[in-house]
Each structure stands twice: as structure tokens, then as C-alpha cells.
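Task card 7
Instruction: Convert sequence to C-alpha cells.
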Amino acid sequence: MKSLSLIPWLVLETLINELLSRDANSPQRLQKLAGKVLRFDIKELPFVVTVTVEQQAIRLSTSTEGDADCWIQTELGVLPELTENANLTRLIKAGQLDIEGDPMLAQQLVMLVKGLDIDWESELEAKLGVLPAQWLSNLWRSGQRHMKEASESHRRWINGVVIEEKRLLPARIEFEQFKQQLQQLRATIERLERQVKQEQ
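Output:
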């Protein structure tokens, strides 16, 4: 199987395998997929990506030779949704996903990467020392907390605007009542104008 000629994909393969090697549970998850070949025809990419799972690593290539245990045609943004069975049927019906072969393999591959459990603090301590690692970890947690708070605040603001907007806009029945009252007022004014003209 030929390697991907594109440097970014080689870098991606190296990065994924490096991350897998840092997760103690990866060998077990790799074992379940060992020997399997998955092909991804992603709309945003000009070529098919073939993922071959080995005992200790995964290999990426653009080769379409040989059989694949699972062939997926989809969009890049859909891949994270493959982890849940309920999403598969919905995505297929919506025309966002086409799968030939065992869909469980795709879910296991996505979970292999998505489910990485790496002790980043220990990794940083080994590279930088205890104090810088703790400082960076605290900074990261603080940043995550601020992002969560900002996201929650933004969500509340949007909900508030929508609710206030709903209160500002009249319901259809209110609009119809207002229209009817306006027509009655116009008829009353016209009647009064006629009375005034007759009295003159």
C-alpha cells in the first residue's frame, strides 16, 4: 500500500500514532480493529483516504486497491457523529452518509481517536518540569472554564433576545383583533364625518 504523498497527511498519521502511543488503553482498542481496512470518500477531499489498522498503529494512504471492510462516503463534519448508532440512520436518510460494509468498524475507528485518554499534565511535567506543567494546566483549565462561562452567557443572551422578541411581536390572533378594531375605528370616523357634513 503506497503512502500518502501529501505531507500534511503523513504528519497527521504520525500525530495520530503518537497520540495513540500515549494512551494506555489504545492497544486494546487497536486490537479490535487490527487487520481492518476502512475507506473514506470525503466530499471536501480530492482523493479517497484508506485507513489500515495494524497491531500498534494506523496507516493512511490514497490507495483504492484491494477490498475494504467498510467504505464510507460522507462530509468531514459528519465523522464525529458516527460514534452514536442513532445518528447513522438519520444521516443515511438525510443523504449525508453512505456506508458499504460494517458500520461498527467506522464507529470503533472514530472512538479510537475521539476516546483518547492522555494524562497531559504528566506529559508536560516530563517535558517542562513540575511548576511550568502545573502553570500551563491551570491556565488551560481556567481558559476552558472561561470559554464555558462565555458560551453559557451567550446562550442565555440569545434565549433572552428570542423570548423578548417573541413578547414584542404580536401573535396572529392579536394582530387580527387589532386589524378588526382598526376597521371599526375607521368606520366610526367615517360615520362621524358624514354626520358633521349633514349638520352643516
